[in-house]
Amino acid sequence: MTADVPASRGIYFYLSHARSPSTQVDHWIQKFFDDLCQEIAGIVPVDSPIDKGFADLRPGRDRDAAINRALGTAHTFVPLYTPEYFAGPLRERDAFQQRLHLAGLDSGFPHILPVLWAPIAGSRQTSDLELARELGADYPAYLENGLGPMSRLSEHASAYKSIVERLARRIVDTAHAGTLAPSAARKIPDSSPPASAVTPFVVAVIAPAVSHLPQSRSSRDCYGPQATQWRPFPNVHDIPIADYTASVVQSMMMPPRVLDFANGDPGFESAPGVILVDPWVLETADGRNLIGAAASRLRKWVTLVIVNDRTDPQFARRGVGLADEVVVLVAGRVRPQARKVIESATDFELEIVRIIGRNRRAFLNSDPP
């Protein structure tokens, strides 16, 4: 949240986003806000009478008053579109739209400048969703995954920066046109986040617990009392791979559901997800049955991810062969696109963002129960 400024100065933009029930600041939205402010600062004079922007990122005593004050003085409104953004009442957007109506600017553009932050199914369209897509239409990754995932991947850093620069220029041009004067915005009675997001994401794990490791497995520090505590990349990740995946899910505005696949139905009929597989499970008594059960549970919105660390001392001697066995076991029952073999922490970090975004999009577009 920016520091308070006199209402007469105004602010370049108001950043609107779906608030998580968590009280923690969303790191990636904070980063985007800071990046956008920095780009604007590089365009406008140092002594510009307009402050950079406002984002409701932290609860505070005067939270509602600050929101209403910012909505009344912002020259542009920048909503981050996600499925969760449209799940609740659009109070901030409606309040800003009322200002535009009173100023005779009912069309919205260019004062409302939406950003496609995460994939949205066609059934969740609004009149300016195409405007959100147009912002980065020349970048396929933006249209496919949204700007949120792009902000987390180094391979998209250049495209991400270009889109932020483009948005900053539009904000500044609109503000300097001076067509929207500061005015009172309709009071927003409640800024609390929704109780839960609308699309959970299941992170299921198939891996041995440390108490059931096969004798042939020498690297025991990768495992814990439960399958969900498996750490295939212990030299890189301090937390279990399921928790790492859940943190990515949460950053994409979905509530994660982490579970041991062996403990029951993961609920893939009504939720997208991934199944993280340790190929060493094949060396356990029930391993092949679990892999077969996983293959039967896959849907268009679920991916089987076979994780095998190439730096593991047993990788070449046995790990590769076990991973190949898993692929052979599921080959006749699983589409090639529904399985993935990953052999490094770097590859996993890159691929899991794509997989989560793709599976959520497939789930929403399939209109499942």
Topology:
Blueprint: E1 11-16, H1 27-43, E2 51-55, H2 63-73, E3 74-81, H3 91-102, E4 115-116, H4 129-135, H5 140-145, H6 147-150, H7 157-177, E5 201-206, H8 241-251, E6 256-260, E7 273-277, H9 287-297, E8 302-307, H10 315-331, E9 339-342, H11 345-366
Parallel strand pairs: 1-2, 1-3, 3-4, 5-6, 5-7, 7-8, 8-9
Helix pairs in contact: 1-7
Task: Give an overview of the whole structure.
The radius of gyration is 23 Å and the shape is elongated. Helix 10 links the parallel strand 8 (302-307) and strand 9 (339-342). The protein has a 5-stranded parallel beta sheet with strand order 6-5-7-8-9, sandwiched between helices. A 4-stranded parallel beta sheet has the order 2-1-3-4, sandwiched between helices. With 369 residues, the protein is an alpha/beta fold. Helix 1 packs across helix 7. It has helices spanning 27-43, 63-73, 91-102, 129-135, 140-145, 147-150, 157-177, 241-251, 287-297, 315-331, 345-366; strands spanning 11-16, 51-55, 74-81, 115-116, 201-206, 256-260, 273-277, 302-307, 339-342. It folds into 2 domains: 11-177, Rossmann fold (3-Layer(aba) Sandwich), CATH 3.40.50; 201-366, Rossmann fold, CATH 3.40.50. The two termini are 38 Å apart.
